[in-house]
Design a protein that fits this description.
Elements (H helix, E strand, L loop, with lengths): L5 E6 L10 H8 L3 E4 L8 H4 L4 E4 L11 H13 L3 E6 L9 H11 L3 E4 L4 H8 L13 E5 L6 H10 L2 E5 L5 H10 L7 E6 L7 E6 L3 H8 L5 E5 L11 H16 L1
Parallel strand pairs: 1-4, 1-5, 2-3, 2-4, 6-7
Antiparallel strand pairs: 7-10, 8-9, 8-10
């Protein structure tokens, strides 16, 4: 290590190393230290960052061995010691990733920092399940929300009234409140819902029901995080070739065309 250190926040995408950007791969190749999350593509880090000290700072639900303040302290300390530090995060650093907090920590310490965007799981994981978030005459907008904490009544009413597609990240634990809130806010009980677990992994699985039955179906299937939840008629695309789903899609398109 020589000269002043620096920090690069890297979006690792949904976990598949093939979805890392060229800039991300270059930053990892030149890194002295890599602090990585559990949902980042870390299995291949010894090859991607051959000269780096690899530090697991991944937080799991209910288990945070290193808190956010601690992560920022370690990151800044290594940079101040002259290291090229990569903070490897799942998805995109600025989409529910606390990347802005880490950038501010670098600014406060006088450490140069840059951000390399990543492929957000909010878009990539539904695509891996065959679900587009928009479709002509069916959904012309999508909204991404964090399910880390329960939404307010006002937020549920806003989402139910927007139309289009709703994508929920980190929402398995709050699914009961989300489904109840959307139903009581007027979203139809037969609105399709898909839960895509472990996107882009060998054990990826999609569970589909409608808003009125998703809690029962998800419980019976043993759905667990990490998962992305998609709410809207575009979910029918997950069953291309299935006659019932095709009819659902056709009906939704007719409704959309007449709206």
């Amino acid at each position: 290590m020589s000269g002043p250190g620096r920090v690069t926040l890297v979006g690792g995408g949904p976990g598949d190393p093939a979805l890392l950007t060229v800039a991300a791969v270059e930053a990892l190749r030149d890194a002295d230290v890599v602090l990585y999350d559990r949902l980042a593509p870390h299995d291949t880090l010894p090859e991607l960052a051959p000269n780096a000290l690899l530090v697991d700072v991944g937080k799991r639900p209910g288990h945070h061995p290193i808190g956010q303040d601690g992560i920022e302290t370690v990151m800044v300390r290594h940079a101040l010691d002259g290291a090229a530090v990569v903070r490897l995060k799942g998805g995109d650093p600025y989409v529910f990733g606390r990347g802005s907090e880490e950038v501010l920590a670098c600014h406060r310490a006088g450490v140069p920092v840059r951000v390399i965007p990543g492929v957000s799981s909010s878009v990539a994981v539904p695509a891996a399940a065959g679900i587009p978030l928009t479709h002509r005459n069916l959904s012309h907008l999508f909204t991404v929300v964090s399910g880390h904490a329960p939404l307010s009544d006002e937020e549920h009413r806003h989402l139910a009234g927007l139309g289009g597609t709703i994508v929920v990240l980190m929402g398995v634990g709050t699914l009961p409140s989300i489904s109840h809130g959307l139903l009581t806010s007027g979203l139809a009980a037969d609105t399709p819902v898909a839960i895509i677990e472990r996107g882009y992994s060998e054990t990826q699985r999609t569970t589909v029901a409608d808003l009125g039955t998703i809690l029962h179906v998800a419980a019976a299937a043993g759905v667990r995080s990490p998962a992305v939840i998609v709410i809207g008629h575009v979910v029918a695309f997950a069953f291309d070739g299935d006659a019932e789903a095709s009819e659902l899609l056709a009906r939704a398109e007719r409704l959309g065309a007449s709206a």
